[in-house]
Amino acid sequence: MKWALEILELDGNADERAIKRAYARLLRSNRPDDDAEAFQQLHMAYQTALQWCRQQQQAPQPQPAAAFEDAVGMHQQAAFPVPADQASLHAELPAPMELALDGLPQQIVGAAGELDGDAFAEWLQQRPELWSLSAKQQIARPLAEMLFGDPELAMSRECFTVICDTFGWNEVDGPIDAYALLHLREQLQARWLLRDANELALLSELRSIGHAGITLAEVRKRRQLLTRPWQRLHALLRALDPARITAMKETVQVLAPDELVQAPLQVEQVRFWDDVSREDRLTGSRLQLGLLRGVLAGCLWLLLPLMVYWLEAAKLDKPTPDATPMLVLGAGGFLVILIIGIGWLPWKLGLHWLLAPQRRAIAIPVAAAAALGLIRFTDYDLLGCLLGAGTLWLSFAVTFREQPNVIRFAPLVLFGVYLASSMLPGGLAASYGKVSAFLAVALSALDSWRQRRSSH
Amino acid sequence: MIVGIDLGTTHSLIGMHGADGPVLFPNPHGLLLTPSVVSIADGAVLVGQAARDRLVTHPGESVAHFKRWMGSDRKTRIGQHSFRPEELSALVLRALLADAEAALGRKVTEAVISVPAYFSDAQRKATRAAGELAGIRVERLINEPTAAALAYGLQQADREGRILVLDLGGGTFDVSILELFDGVIEVHASAGDNFLGGEDFLQALIQAFCQDLGVELSSLPRAEQARLQQQLERLKRDLGNPGDASVELTLGNRSLQWSINEARFARLCEPLLQRMRLPIERAIRDARLDHQSLGEIVLVGGAARMPMIARLVTRMFGRLPLRHIDPDQAIALGAAVAAGMKARDSSLDEVVLTDVCPYTLGTQVSRIGPDGKERSGYFHPIIQRNSVVPISREDQLYPLTDQQEYLLIDVYQGESPTVDKNIRLGELKVPLAASGGTQRSVTLRFTYDVDGILQVEVTENATGKRYELILEQNPGVLSPAEIRQRLLALDALKLHPRDQQVNLAVVARTERLYAEHVAQRPQLQEWLLRFQHCLESQDLQDIERQRSALGRALDELEQML
To answer: Residue A242, exposed/middle/buried by CB under 10 A (0-12, 13-18, 19+)?
Structure first.
């Protein structure tokens, strides 16, 4: 503060008038087009001093007589003559209007909820209240509070943008944070789409992000799936169809943006479909779905021994067959299928985790070393061979993941390795495992080299 | 000797600051307003009233409203020549300078030219290029509402307070909020719309006309379109007076009559008025003012004469606007004052003008969005709009990743928080030092000067290397070499001598009336032949006598119709 007064050559009890006078005097020797730097400094000092001075005398300004007649009247009596054409203008002035602003924010959001973008813009244009700057100023805050505060409000994106444009909210340095506005816009739009009357808007929104063949009946079904009371088994049965999961994922994106669930959506439903559709995360719902799939597939498997047993039993001339092998086969197969059903997902995710760019340069050599170790130091050559071949396959897949046409040759490569290792001395399994492991390490080295090059 | 020029969309004026304040120079017809129209007649260039009349009779050889294309590389063909908007403006400037030189009796070499406050960098550069193409040095570009306020502020030198200037010209709309005290004229905020002006109100009228009478505008020949435009322009002026205004004209073989009243015209223009509100509100917000603390509201610009503009102000502010100064001349007078200040006129020693940068200038950055993902496309302001100029601001920018080898710095102008809706001015690629950790950043400095020209400078912090961005690689901006080349081309064009222009204007006017009024054709044809015969005799006295007689006759005829 002191530096500003020093530049302006003033003491601590200068009032606004004195600051302005000092600024005007100094400005003549520091014109903006002569010395830009000196001017900038002077101007900054002036702004600082003015701000300080205004804070000092925070005494509220007397409200200027708001009455319309006063303002006009005062002007007419000003010390200068009014040209003749203005006298005629005065005659055409609309009668001073008492503007009722009380219910206006409610009316605005009401109209925004009912009308489409263009119609709403027109409706807003015709509100006489919004032409008046002072009325607009008074409305802006309550309107914003209402939009942010009322969880029942709904309107389309277009209408919300019209409101923002009208009140100047969506500008750099606007009064409301741009992210908050964006968030609110999506929220309002989601609520608006949830209304029965806006089914068609929902349809076109879903068509724009999904495929174009979605029908209105399908839209209703999706909506109903998200709004009906929560029943886990029912939801799980629905989710058995993978196409349904993708469809619901799109719908959740539209109706519950930013993971925000609003009535009439059911929280459990939305969360369930969200969880199920996440490929990159191990969730309870996905495990349950895996379990259900495993049980169903296992039941199908159980039919096989049952059929065999029944056919055996149908042969009347034979004694009643022994049920034990059938029972073992059925129960064992059932268990294996169940384990695959449940374990498939964690296995896939684990593999995914291992093969992430920052880990695979270590994971693949380690797996290859394990395969070599199994072959070299233990008797489980076959296991080592399988591990080596698996590592080679994975390493091939990650190295050429962006060239799908190369990946097609992976089986050929494995077959080539088989041919090559059959010619090598030593056991077939052992040499197959060794060759695969070495090849996998070589591919992994190629992959890390390519990674390093592309990051530059 | 510096002159002030108002280079408008529909009209242009020229003036200078003399011993008794600003004065404007008349054109050969004795008028201060020269229509910004260029026409080519008999291989030589014609500017002003005569060119405007030739819009009706020779639409293929005449062109108007080229200020709207400034800053673009749009080419216009007239006759055998093809011109850029800068060149057309340069032709108008040459005509204006000839008027000033005739009045002053010596050569003019420097000028201050007014531009809409909301003109962009490219548009400002194009205006400068137009000055150079006209053979003068442009000492300064002054914002139009600032010029108007300067003219107004000087008239009211002893007054203090905040004023709002609304400038609705032929093609642009500008708003400025100023404060006057102790000889200081301080602009607090400017806003505007570069594509909103009297012409748009005329278009609304033309559309209504065509709709009412079932006329397909695009199917009319160009000459008839131009005639329709000029007739409705006259109707628009008549609408300023109380009562109905009507127009009669013949298009093709149809004779049409149409009348409209002011109330309907105002309804037609409601969307345009709506567009005027936004810049006004923005300027008030930016000046951080309560609108009630505004002292006066001043209307300037020819189109501000329309009563609905005054009503708009009344609706918004609950009070009447002022029109002390001639709305057509205010900007030119202000430009003349600015020229006087630039020339250090001693009578203007006490006046200081400070202006603002009307738009936000910044760069593109990546940021973590509300969904937690990193996205590019966010606008990061460096110079906020309505900062006092000259101004210099800097900011630090950091690379996104440690491996990044260079920073790409885009420069944008605009008010949207995302860059896709803002105007891109240019880009600069800055290599980063390979190592340095936290030192891997650059300092971006924007400098905006009083003429509205932006300079961008980037310093790499680790090594201290500096890079400068020159915003020239824009298709709408001519390079200095191109300017020199085009200057020669323009010099080769023949201009009609000033003393012949008056005669040509009368001929053009007679021809226009001939095209417009079928019933009077025999009469007009006879007058025209007689005058042309007189011109061939080269008897100066006789020509002058006949010219003024013909002028009076035409006046009478037009009044009668």
So the answer is: exposed
Count: domains in chain A: 5
Q: Is the peptide bond before A62 cis (omega within 30 degrees of 0)?
A: no
Q: How many independent structural domains does chain B possess?
A: 3
Asked whether residue B83 falls in the same domain as residue B156, the answer is: yes
CATH, residue B188: 3.30.420.40
CA distance A286 to A348: 13
B51 in a domain, yes or no?
Answer: yes
Question: Do the beta carbons of residue B28 and residue B499 sit within 8 Å?
Answer: yes
Cβ contacts of B320 on chain A, cutoff 8 Å: 72, 75-76, 86, 89-90, 93
Residue A44 forms beta bridges with which residues?
Answer: none
The pLDDT value recorded for residue A64 is 37
SS3 B15: strand
In a domain, B484, yes or no: no
What's the rounded mean pLDDT across residues B45-54? 88
Residues in chain A with CB shorter than 8 Å from the CB of B285 are 168
Is residue A244 domain-resident? yes
- Is A79 part of any domain? no
Position B389 in a domain: yes
Note the pLDDT of residue B435.
64
- Does residue B276 register a pLDDT over 80? yes
Q: B383: pLDDT confidence band, cut at 50, 70 and 90?
A: very high
Same domain, A47 and A30: yes
Nearest to A456 among B277, B362, B403 (CB): B403
Residue among B466, B442, B349, B332 at smallest CA distance from B394:
B442
Q: Which residues pair with B191 in a beta bridge?
A: B175
ipTM of the complex: 0.80
Which of B2, B184, B379 is the best residue to mutate to test the A interface, defined by the most A CB atoms within 10 Å of its own CB?
B184
Residue of B nearest to A168 (CA): B282
CB B369 within 8 Å of CB B426: no
**Helix (H, G, I), strand (E, B), or coil: what is residue A400?**
coil
CA distance A425 to A402: 36
* Structural domain boundaries, residue A375: 355-455
Q: Apex CA B370: angle with CA A246 and CA A124, to 5°?
A: 95
DSSP E strands in B60-197: the ranges are: 62-64, 76-78, 81-83, 110-115, 137-143, 161-168, 173-181, 184-193
For testing the chain A interface, which of B152, B187, B241, B274 should be mutated: the one with the most A CBs within 10 Å? B274
Q: What angle do CA B370, B375, B378 make, to 5 degrees?
A: 90
Q: Would you call A354 exposed, middle or buried from its count of C-beta atoms within 10 A (0-12, 13-18, 19+)?
A: middle
Whether residues A227 and A249 share a domain: the answer is: yes
Same domain, B279 and B323: yes
State pLDDT tens for residues A58-93: 644 443 333 333 333 333 333 333 344 444 444 444
**Matching residue, tokens 């001395």:** A425
Average pLDDT over residues A210-239: 86
CB contact under 8 A, B310 and A89: yes
pLDDT digits (tens, 9 = 90+) for B161-206: 888 999 998 888 999 998 888 888 889 998 888 889 999 999 999 9
Strands B76-78 and B81-83: antiparallel
CB atoms under 10 Å from CB of A189, counted, come to 23
Pick the last residue of a domain from A153, A170, A194.
A194
- Distance CA(B410)–CA(B371), nearest Å, equals 25
Q: Give the max Cα distance, chain B.
A: 88
